[in-house]
Structures are given as C-alpha cells and as structure tokens.
Amino acid sequence: xxxxxxxxxxxxxxxxxxxxxxxxxxxxxxxxxxxxxxxxxxxxxxxxxxxxxxxxxxxxxxxxxxxxxxxxxxxxxxxxxxxxxxxxxxxxxxxxxxxxxxxxxxxxxxxxxxxxxxxxxxxxxxxxxxxxxxxxxxxxxxxxxxxxxxxxxxxxxxxxxxxxxxxxxxxxxxxxxxxxxxxxxxxxxxxxxxxxxxxxxxxxxxxxxxxxxxxxxxxxxxxxxxxxxxxxxxxxxxxxxxxxxxxxxxxxxxxx
Length: 256
Description:
3 domains; five-stranded antiparallel sheet
C-alpha cells in the first residue's frame, strides 16, 4: 500500500520559483504504476510536476519522488497539459468571410443594381439608405434591386433600365477578425486519438479552454481535425473557430 514517506517533504527557493519535493513508498509494482499516473507538465494542488524519480530503498520498499514547481509568489504555473488524453490549447487570430449583408452598416446599394421601368428616370431617395432588397408594393411597380444584369426585368413597355450600378460589384463577403483555438492531446494509440476527434468535424461545440473569448451570443465550430504520430505518441488535434458575430453559428445547417 502506498504511503507518503515520513519527513520527505522539502521546499526550496530557486531562480525558477518554489520547488516542493514529495516522496511515496510502496511495493515496486505499485511505485512503477504510481509514477506513470501524472507526467511532467501536469499540475495539481502541489504545483506543476517537473520531475519524477523512482528508486529502491530496500529489497521490498521502493520510492517515487516527485518535484513540483510554483512561481516565486506561490501561484500555480499554468503550463500546457502533457498528460495522456488531456488537452492543451493555444489561441490564434484568423480572418472569417462573412456575408456582406451581415455587416452592421450594410447598404443594399453595395452589391445590387437598381433597375427601373422604362418610363422612370428618377433615383429614389431610399437608394442611399436601403438595408435590404424589399420594396413596397408601389415602388416595386417602378423599381427592382437585382444582383446581376441577367435578372433585369422586362415588361410590355420593354426592358427595364439600370439606374445605378452596385458600389461594390461582385463582392458578396467581407472579412472579420475572429479567434481560432487549437486543442492537442497525446495518446498511446491511434484508436484512442481517433475517439477524441470522432464526430467533431464541422460541428458546433465548445473547446475545453476558450481563454475567456466567448462573449454572449458567440459560439464555436470545429473546422479541422487531425491525428499524427511523432515516433513516441499519437496526437489528436482539433481546431475551433469562433462565430463572426454574436448571432453565433447557425445550428440548422450542422444538425444531422
């Protein structure tokens, strides 16, 4: 049965911070298993684990020594997790193409032609301020918003004229700066790594660590997954992209 070794707790100050050493004793099999439960880089209430050492104290008693580190003020040092199956994360900024119509100051004239029936030449006042292509019944008898010249109406008086060209012809999207979070976890087998990424691609969800970057209304979508092997372990990677605005990613297209 494992037990903390009497008088094994040591605390020392170094240039890196506060180092705490703790030792446990037990049978060889128990100590070997115990030494693998937490890998260097993981953290618990004692601090961030920096080193693990096992050695025999007697033919029947073995020792597991762990060293933990806290910063000079005693605070936990927040490092990426390297324990098997536990995710570490990093955040990046990226550009996301959004529909032009979703811009806060969008105007219909940006990407629409204004067509008018053959006997109308006056540009209406609402051409400057319109935010959608919906016209009143009276206006629709004389005007039409169209996105391509092929949509130009034709009536008994002939083909309608184009009164105004779009101010941003052909542009239907604009870029917004958003955040992406990449999560990585280490596994001992390809199958275990595959289970982590299963059924996540192109799905709306939540990263384990969002760095406080999820304001009200925003959400995340998994845009990339991968599994790789570095010669020692398998790594599963998930990349999450935050929605471009507080309306969030629309759930409907991503539901099965």
